Amino acid sequence: MSVKTKTPYETLGVSPKASDSEIKKAYKALAKKLHPDLNPGNTGNEERFKEISAAFNFLKDKEQRRRYDAGEIDASGQEKPEHAYYRQYSSGPQGHRYENSAGYEDLNDIFAQAFGQGAGGARGANIRMRGGDLRFHLKIGFRDAVKGAKQRVTTPDSGTLDITIPAGIRDGQTLRLAGRGQPGLNGGPPGDALVEISVASDSLFMRDGNDILLELPISIDEAVLGGNVTVPTFDGSVKLKIPVGSSSGRKMRLKGRGVKPAREKAGDQIVTLRIVLPKTPDERLKSAMKTLRTSGGYDPRADWKGNAT
Question: Domain map of the chain by residue range?
Fold first, then answer.
């Protein structure tokens, strides 16, 4: 007596006409119920979780689903009626790598196991399937990117991942958490969790490589007479000596006060001076400027090379 094999749709409990969002919703509900972390020691739920994961990964590939619905391929992804083929260390359409003890794969046998089929016999029992990778996006603050931090993210099955963010991580960089992806089949290794990082902007600082950039407002008397001012850095505030006669745009370097990645040379903090006048200049400032002007003053454009004609 033959046993009817479940289709991927039946495994997830959805109609063949279900939308992508309905399939995803059904998978998330089942995954939350059956995940091994929530059911320690329950081997039945663990096997069921592997089945629904394989079914979801199969159906979320739109082209693969279309061909399956059209009868062009079977639930293993193989052409009908061709026999399964072998390929050493290949990557499957869902990012899985399928291996058996000989280092080859039989996709029919693999998906036969995933969907409860009995094909493959003893040979199929030796086949291992690597779990799929999980992808996440995490937005972090500018300071966390510079100094490093620890963050926790929630996985689709309501689990959590604790992530250590290394000092100096860059916007767009991806962290790989080995073994924190989907579980493998038949003793196969789990996949990885891939966390793409985006870094928020900061109201004071910018980054250029491993250098930190800061625009520092100074008063006109500090620019003319010089002085000591307090400058914020990610290692605490420091004193900076403004040289006499400093113009806007002058750059000053705080050595070693930039980004300090673990295996890279630490950057510096580059401070660009910007002279800022009061919103409403008082009479003393106006009087001093009038005296400077009437006494001959100075021409800031005297050193220009050439003039417009």
Answer: 8-129, 134-199, 205-294
Tell me the C-alpha distance between 231 and 234, whole Å: 10
- Where is 3: in which H helix or E strand? none
Burial (CB count <10 Å: 0-12, 13-18, 19+), residue 67:
middle
Q: Domain 8-129: which topology? A: Helix Hairpins (1.10.287)
Condensed to tens digits (0 to 9), the pLDDT of residues 267-281 reads: 999 999 999 998 888
Which of the listed CATH numbers 2.160.20.60, 1.10.150.80, 2.60.260.20, 3.90.180.10 matches domain 134-199? 2.60.260.20
- Between the CA of residue 275 and those of 55, 217, 218, 239, 245, what are the distances in Å? 64, 6, 5, 18, 11
Q: Which residues contact residue 249 at a Cβ distance below 8 angstroms, ignoring those fewer than 6 apart?
A: 272, 273, 274
Under CATH, what is the fold of the domain 205-294?
HSP40/DNAj peptide-binding domain (2.60.260)
pTM, two decimal places: 0.57
Per residue in 130-158, pLDDT (tens digit) is 888 888 889 999 999 999 999 888 777 77
Residue (of 23, 195, 192) closest to 97 by Cα position? 192
The listed range with the strongest mean pLDDT (58-72, 154-168, 247-261) is 247-261
CB 271 within 8 A of CB 251: yes
Contact between 186 and 120 under an 8 Å Cβ cutoff? The reply is: no
SS3 label, residue 239 = strand
